[in-house]
What we know:
The chain is an alpha+beta fold. Helix content is 21%, strand content 41%. It contains three helices and ten strands. It has helices at residues 94-106, 163-171, 178-197; strands at 13-21, 27-35, 38-49, 53-58, 64-72, 77-81, 84-86, 108-119, 130-140, 157-162. It has a four-stranded mixed beta sheet with strand order 7-4-9-8, with helices on both faces. The chain has a three-stranded antiparallel beta sheet with strand order 1-2-3, with no helix packed on it. Strands 6-5-10 form a three-stranded antiparallel beta sheet. The protein starts with 12 loop residues before the first strand and ends with a helix. The mean pLDDT is 92.
Amino acid sequence: MSTLSEPEEHWPVHEVERIWDGKAPFSVRRDQISAPDHPDERFGRLVLEHPGAVVVLAVDDRERAFVLHQYRHPAGRRLVELPAGLLDVPGEDLVVAAQRELQEEALLLADHWEHLLTTYPSPGLSSERIDIFLATGLHQASDRGDFVPHHEEADMTSSWVPVAELLDAFLAREITNGPTGHAVMAYTLRGSASRQSSR
C-alpha cells in the first residue's frame, strides 16, 4: 500500500473576478491568491470551474471495450472515446451518473460496476475531476432514457475494440483521448496485479 497522498489544501484567496458565465455548466474566474507564508505576494490564477465527469469502460466477456468515435472541435479530430458525461445533476451519485451515461450513449446496462480511478486532467487550469468506472456483465438496454443526441453526439459512431488493441493504440500515439488511455491502462494493470497475486 502506498504512503503517498494528496491532502486537500486551500491557499488564501484575496479577490475573485468573474470572467465568464454561460448556459453551459462551466464558468471562468480569476483568483488573486498568495502562498500561506507570503501573504503580501499576491498573484493571479485563472480557474475553469467544471462540475466533473464520469467515464465508463464497458468490457464484454470477449475482452472487448465499447468505444465511441466522436468529433471534438477544439482538438480538430474525431477521437476514440468511452461513454462519458458531465456531473450536471446536483447531488447525483457517481455510479448512477455512470449508469445513465452508459445507457444513453451505448444503449447498454451492466450488472457489475467498479471504480477504477480518479484523475484531474488539467489541474493547473481546471477544477475538472474525472471518475472512471469499469462496467461488466453487459446487456442491451431497451432505450436511451430521456437522451436525444444533438450536434456532434448525433454524428457519433461506435464499435467494439479488444482492450489490448486499445492499449497498444494509445501507447503508439494512434489514439490520444486521455480518459480512454487512463481507463485502459488502469484496467490492464489491475488485471496484471490480480494475476500476480494469484500465483
